[in-house]
Amino acid sequence: MATGSNSSSQESKQPGPELPKQLPFDFLKKITNDFGQDRKISGSPFGTLYKGIVPDDGRVIAVKKLQENAPMPADKQFNREVQNVMSLKHENIVELVGFCCETQKKLVQFDKRYIQADITESLICYEYLPNGSLQENLFEPKGSTKPEIGWDVRFKIIKGICQGLRFLHKLDIPIVHMDLKPENILLDANMVPKIADFALSRVFGQEQTRLCTQTVVGSYGYMAPEYLYRGEISAQSDIYSLGLVIIEITTGEQNPREKDQPSARSFVDKVRKEWTLENITSKYSSLDHESLQQVKTCIDIGSNCVEIDRTKRPRIEEIVDSLNGLRSSQKVTEVSRPPTTGKKLMGSIFGLKK
């Protein structure tokens, strides 16, 4: 993967980032307490994530054990995730720190009796992110000890996800994630978001902008219509999913993920109808002028990202530029404006008449 490289003379002076290591299965089994329930972080159709504690130095890593009966064969998942993520280094992409692909002899039941068979165990190890997934932090059941996320942190998370996605899409050999959703955004100790789980990711060749597939695999509620119905894959497939994630973060409303709504069109229509200017200022009544502008822009961006026609969706660099420009542009307009609140504030931002 071409992510930028040094000459041989530079490498001798400044060693590059340490590449992930192949780790023994028995070692991963030991540090996860034999993949015990007490070490389980989360589970999905593709694999189960465990907390691993390295005995020598107490370092904590996340160990993903791929499911044997996943929607996609484990070897294909493993190859995609390891190869696509191995050399990626970015603040908003989860770091791969090790992997294991080892064949073990196991007793398995076959035709009412047990036989010895060769089973290949596939595991991928990542940096451990203590604040868990965005899903947990946004939509944790009532009674959770996790505090509600304020707007400043929500905006920081949105910007971080977009920066991570721009990094993937603008690589010399671009990567399309294909499964962007709150469960696959992990948060570090400072609530910095990192895109994770590349099991469905696709690598594009140079000058290539689109792929077609007959095998459509993804998460209900986040699949772009052109992928769902025509098997078309492009960077705009991720933009559609990103739009839904931005809408969820901004509004605090959860995409219901109904099986008859794989592209969440009812959810999109509901948000477009209900999240009027009045609703924005009511929901975020304590925010100042600058922050309310951020909220409105994020809802607009999310809405534009989920256009059915993929050619009408913004490119990731346009989204990042819009988000980065908010703060500086607002400072200019606020200099001569006295503080305002409530409906007067809404009018001053959005040009409403009294």
UniProtKB/TrEMBL annotation:
InterPro entries in UniProt: Kinase-like_dom_sf, Prot_kinase_dom, Ser/Thr_kinase_AS
Domain Protein kinase: 35-326
Biased composition (Polar residues): 1-13
Chain intervals for the UniProt region annotation (Disordered): 1-21
An annotated Gene Ontology molecular function: protein kinase activity
The organism's place on the tree of life at top rank: Eukaryota
Gene3D superfamilies tied to this protein: Phosphorylase Kinase, domain 1, Transferase(Phosphotransferase) domain 1
Pfam families reported in the protein's UniProt record: Pkinase
Protein name: Protein kinase domain-containing protein
Species of provenance: Triticum aestivum
Phylogenetic classification of the source organism: Eukaryota, Viridiplantae, Streptophyta, Embryophyta, Tracheophyta
